[in-house]
Amino acid sequence: MSFDDDGFDRSVSLPPNLTIAHIRNAIDYIEKEAKEFVDVYFEQSNVFSGLIGILGVRALNAFSPYKKHKHPDIAQQRFPDLSLNGKLNPPPEHALESKGSTRPWAIQSHYNHPGWYIMWRYAVDPTGG
User: Fold this and answer.
1) How many CB atoms lie within 10 A of CB 17?
2) Is the peptide bond before 80 cis (omega within 30 degrees of 0)?
3) How far apart are CA 56 and CA 48, in angstroms?
4) Which of 16, 19, 74, 81 lies 20 to 30 angstroms, CA to CA, from 63?
5) How many angstroms separate the CA atoms of 82 and 98, rounded?
6) pLDDT digits (tens, 9 = 90+) for 66-83
């Protein structure tokens, strides 16, 4: 892997029409919004991971052409969280799931659907530094 000055590996494929600028804006949004929920991490880290995934959906909805799924049951319970231009029943190449995790290794989603998965990797500094 070779990372550019901005920390992104440009050899990694991205979903259609999603750019590094969209992802950078989403990361900035998630970092800003997650600050008020850090105490949840220390109480129940899996809930915090869920919050990061939700913030990822909100961020991509706001800063990219991927929009939150319009059907509430699918948006809350099933794949995908987002689709390119908000299309209902998108083909897999236009479907995107948002997940938060501290794990530094590959993660298999319990949904196991074809499509794109974006993993928001995070670390919480227990010293508050």
Assistant:
1) 12
2) yes
3) 12
4) 74
5) 8
6) 999 776 666 566 678 899
